C-alpha cells in the first residue's frame, strides 16, 4: 500500500479492505508509547478511553472526561508521525446532543491533532455520527461489547451469542457504516457474527475478541505487553511480560542504591581540582 514512513490516511484504511491487507491498531496514551507503536508500523494508534482503567486505575471507562482524553491525545500526537491517530469519544460526549458530539469531535481534531474519532454504539448515535461526518470529521464506530455501557448491559463479556442479539449488533454495524463511519470495531462478538458483518460491509472491521475473520485487529497495548495485571481477557495474547521486567529493574535499582553501587563513577561529574580549591577557600572554615 504505502511506503514505510508515508502517512496513513483514512482513505488508505478504507482501501486496505479492498486490497485484502489486514489492519493493525493498538492503544497509546502518551508520547513515549505512541512513538514506539508508530515506529513499529501499526496502521492506527487509538487513544482509547481504556485510559480510565489502565492509566487511571478506575474500575471501568465511564468516568473518563473529555479533558483527560484531550490531554492524553495531545501527548500521543507528539509521538505519531505515520499512523492514523484516533481519539476515543468519552461517555459524556456520546450522551449529550448531536451538536455536543460534533463540537467534542472537533476538539480532538483541532486541539489534539487527531485524524479521526471513535464512537461506541448508543441509541441515537447514527444521526450524531452523520452530523459529524457531514462536518468533515472521520469517525470510527464500535459495536458488540461497548465498555462505556457494559455495566448497564450485564457486565464485560461476549455479546451477540443468540440470534436476536446478534441481529441487533449486525444492524448497528450497518447503521454506523451507513452513517459514514470509515471502519467499525467489533468487540467480543462470536467469530461467525464477525464474519457476517465483515462480509456485509464495504468498510473494514477491526476485531477485538471477535475471532480472525475481521479486516484488522486491535488490542489494548498494556494487555499485549503484559503491563496491566488486574485481569487478562481470554482473547488477549501477551507478547511480552513488561510488568515483570519493570519490577525486576526497579528492585535492582533499589538494591544498587542501598548498597552504594549507584550512581557509579561513570554517572558522576566532578569539579576541576582548581575550582574545588577555590570553592573551599570561599566557604567558612
Ligand atoms: O478504549 C479502548 O481501548 C478501546 C479498544 C479496546 C477498542 O475502545
Features:
single chain, 285 residues, alpha/beta, TIM Barrel, 2 domains, 8-stranded parallel barrel, 12 helices, binds 3-methyl-2-oxobutanoic acid
Describe this structure in words.
By secondary structure, the chain is of the alpha/beta class. It folds into two domains: 10-240, TIM Barrel (Alpha-Beta Barrel), CATH 3.20.20.60; 245-282, no CATH class. 42% of the residues lie in helices and 13% in strands. It has helices spanning 10-19, 31-39, 51-54, 66-77, 91-94, 98-110, 125-134, 163-178, 191-200, 221-224, 242-258, 273-282, and strands at residues 23-27, 44-47, 84-88, 116-120, 139-144, 183-187, 205-208, 216-219. It has an eight-stranded parallel β-barrel with strand order 1-2-3-4-5-6-7-8, surrounded by seven helices. α6 crosses α7 (125-134) and α8 (163-178) packs parallel to α9 (191-200). The mean pLDDT is 96. 3-methyl-2-oxobutanoic acid (KIV) is lined by residues 27, 46, 48-50, 88, 185, 208, 218, 220. 3-methyl-2-oxobutanoic acid is lined by residues 27, 46, 48-50, 88, 185, 208, 218, 220.
Amino acid at each position: 500500500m504505502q511506503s514505510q514512513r508515508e502517512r496513513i490516511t483514512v482513505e488508505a484504511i478504507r482501501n486496505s479492505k479492498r486490497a485484502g491487507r489486514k489492519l493493525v491498531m493498538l492503544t497509546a496514551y502518551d508520547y513515549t508509547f505512541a512513538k514506539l507503536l508508530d515506529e513499529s508500523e501499526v496502521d492506527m494508534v487509538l487513544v482509547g478511553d481504556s485510559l480510565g482503567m489502565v492509566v487511571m486505575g478506575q474500575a471501568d471507562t465511564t468516568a473518563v472526561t473529555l479533558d483527560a482524553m484531550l490531554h492524553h491525545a495531545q501527548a500521543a500526537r507528539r509521538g505519531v508521525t505515520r499512523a492514523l491517530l484516533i481519539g476515543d469519544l468519552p461517555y459524556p460526549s456520546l450522551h449529550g446532543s448531536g451538536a455536543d458530539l460534533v463540537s467534542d469531535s472537533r476538539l480532538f481534531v483541532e486541539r489534539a491533532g487527531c485524524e479521526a474519532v471513535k464512537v461506541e454504539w448508543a441509541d441515537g448515535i447514527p444521526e450524531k455520527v452523520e452530523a459529524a461526518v457531514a462536518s468533515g470529521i472521520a469517525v470510527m464506530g464500535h459495536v458488540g461489547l461497548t465498555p462505556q455501557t457494559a455495566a448497564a448491559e450485564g457486565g464485560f463479556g461476549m455479546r451477540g451469542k443468540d440470534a436476536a442479539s446478534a441481529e441487533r449488533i449486525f444492524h448497528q454495524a450497518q447503521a454506523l457504516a451507513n452513517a459514514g463511519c470509515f471502519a467499525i470495531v467489533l468487540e467480543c462478538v462470536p467469530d461467525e457474527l464477525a464474519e457476517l458483518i465483515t462480509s456485509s460491509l464495504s468498510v473494514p472491521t477491526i476485531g477485538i475478541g471477535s475471532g480472525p475473520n475481521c479486516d484488522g485487529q486491535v488490542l489494548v497495548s498494556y494487555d499485549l505487553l503484559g503491563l496491566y495485571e488486574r485481569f487478562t481477557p481470554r482473547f488477549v495474547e501477551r507478547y511480552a511480560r513488561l510488568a515483570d521486567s519493570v519490577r525486576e529493574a526497579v528492585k535492582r535499582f533499589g538494591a544498587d542504591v542501598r548498597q552504594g553501587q549507584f550512581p557509579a563513577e561513570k554517572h558522576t561529574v566532578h569539579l576541576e581540582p582548581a575550582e574545588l580549591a577555590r570553592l573551599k577557600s570561599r566557604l567558612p572554615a
